Amino acid sequence: MDDKLPEDRSTPFSGSIHSHPELSSQATRGNTCASFQYDENQKSLCLASRQSTITEEVNADSLERYSFELEEKIRDKDVSAGHSYVGAKEDEGKAKEIRREAKLEVSTDVVLRNEKYLKDFILFCSIFPSDYEFTKDMLVWQWIAEGLINLGEDEIMEGESIRCFDTLLKLGYIMPAGYNHRIDQMKYRVGEEKVNAFIQKQQYLEPKFQKYLDTEEITDSLKVDRLSLAFKEIDCINFWTSKHCGQLKMLSIHRCYGSKMKNLLPSDLFLKLQALKILNLSHTDIMALPSSVENLKALQCLDMYATPIMGLPESMRCLSNLRTLNLDGCLSLRTLPKCTSMLINLRHLVLDVVGQLQSMPAGIGKLSKLRTLRAFLVGEDEGSRIGELKDMNKLKGSLLISNLENVSTKEEAAEAYLCNKQDLKKIELQWSDLQDNKNPDEEEILESLQPPLGIEELKIFFYSGGVLPSWISNPSFTEVVSITLYKCRYCDTLPPLGELPALKFLSILEMNEVVEINSLFCRRNQITNQHRHVAFPKLEKLSFDSMAKLEKWTGVVNGDFPYLRHLIIAHCGELVVLPFLSHLNSLLHVEIINCPQLSCLPEGGLPPTLELLMIKDCPKLKERCCNDQCDDWPKVARIPAFYINNQKVSVDSAEISEMIA
């Protein structure tokens, strides 16, 4: 490949929409990366390009070299600050600041020299616009798709890439950009200042240049292998150029705030882009992909995040190397193409399955390499039943299995082989909320859906069986930290969840048939003199909410709940008895809300550690502790923050009764 660059470098770079583009690891082989940016003033396109000749791999720096570089950096900063080096030493505050900044910069340089992949990762990120937001997962998957890291196994590559991401985050090359609550993930952006400073230091990169484009051919288009398009009006972009970038490996289209765009791409856009590995169309207005997408045989990552796309073409069956398909936020999408099951190398299928799809594509179980799938909609027809999960043993992270009412037998449920999916950390099992009657068959079905022992979070929604499964309280689940039981309306007893050794958060909501919570909630066997099991040894937060028939909570003994900090009891209309709580020496926060039959606080009082007690809509309890004349006042008088009906109760108040009436 001819590496000679065009000679016209006279025009200064202006009107840039996003951060400086740069080449990726392919730079070590002399390839170029370009960014086409619409210059509103010039009404033309700007082409920014850099080229590299070689990337030096540096071994670990010796202490002597580090010290030398540090002193040199201090001198440089001292001179730039307008002081002499000796003067800086005399000015102790200035000297400390200079040394701190110099040490940080030299330490960063050392890290970048010693880390094998960091430079390439930074160069890759530099092609993004400054306001472009991404998740850790998507960036890591793009690094892998680009071939910046090649360590064989997916798990090893992802692990190393995540480690490098965290390093760049600490160094400021990647910056936090907020939190996406819908997907429960952080958002990030490029640290533009740090990345630009890094680019300027790269001596093997030739200076950036511009080339204004109208309809003329780009003479060096065959050199461009990374192309970023940013626009005010998509009509201003000459797609002719991108169509003929035969070596293009990454095409990323970005829109500026308030920009407009045609909702269709040219039908022949992808005819000559056989080398394309990454196609990023996120946040654009594209409603459909052209059928020429079938030519992208090398494509590994397709990002359609937050586009109004309504469907994908069946020609995608040719994308046999596709590893990542991001359709999250595509609110008009209702189905996946029938050919989805042919994408046998797919690792990450990213979308809100429950919110976007009406059903799973038939035969999705053939995607045995799939690692990311947020949810599975159980269907009644062949090819969409729960057994499609059988061979998906590489699934990781979280998985919601919805529409479980479509599972008929325990044998069918067992075909999912949930217990074999060792990388899953969060599992949600959900039935329809429209079931009106108790269904004993669901008891055997749920018993057959035992998760892997390594899960950390479990949620069960709308279960209509009368008994929870035996496995839910198995102490072998040593990593379960959170359990939510929601609207298991026909269960009349709680299992001995106190035997789970790592459980920290427990929420039980709308289990309307439970009348009494007793010692069986804490432990499977009765306490004996020879053996005593501490119930809920790690639990920090416990919540009972909307337990319509609950009358008594007993069975708590001294030593149970040693780390409980938050206790919430809400909307339990028949509750009259609370357990002994005074021994809970970690308890800080108690809320008792809308329990109208509860007439007194627990016998023995509340622990001295309690910092906040909130009582609301509990008229009988209010009369017991609203002032120093009440029977339960000694139990609450020393609590720093005591509220009744959202009003703080204070010993120093002269008219407490009137204040809370």
Provide structural commentary.
- The strands form four sheets. This protein has a twelve-stranded mixed sheet with strand order 12-13-14-15-16-17-19-21-22-23-24-25, with helices on one face.
- 20% of the residues lie in helices and 19% in strands.
- It is an alpha/beta fold.
- The protein is globular.
- Mean pLDDT is 81; it is low at 1-64, 205-218 and 653-661.
- The protein has a domain at 63-114.
- It comes from Sesamum indicum (Oriental sesame).
- This is Disease resistance RPP13-like protein 1 isoform X2.
- Residues 127-175 form the Disease resistance protein winged helix domain.
- Residues 1-10 have a biased composition (Basic and acidic residues).
Number of helical elements: 14
Structural class call reads alpha/beta
Low-pLDDT segments = 1-64, 205-218, 653-661
Q: What is the overall shape?
A: globular
Mean pLDDT: 81
Lateral arrangement of strands in the main beta sheet = 12-13-14-15-16-17-19-21-22-23-24-25
β content, as a range?
A: 15-25%
Total number of strands: 25
Q: What about the largest sheet?
A: 12 strands, mixed
Oligomer: single chain
Helicity range: 10-25%
InterPro entries: LRR_dom_sf, LRR_R13L1-DRL21, WHD_DRP
Keywords: ATP-binding, Nucleotide-binding
Protein name: Disease resistance RPP13-like protein 1 isoform X2
Organism: Sesamum indicum (Oriental sesame)
Can you summarize this structure?
The protein has 661 residues and is of the alpha/beta class.
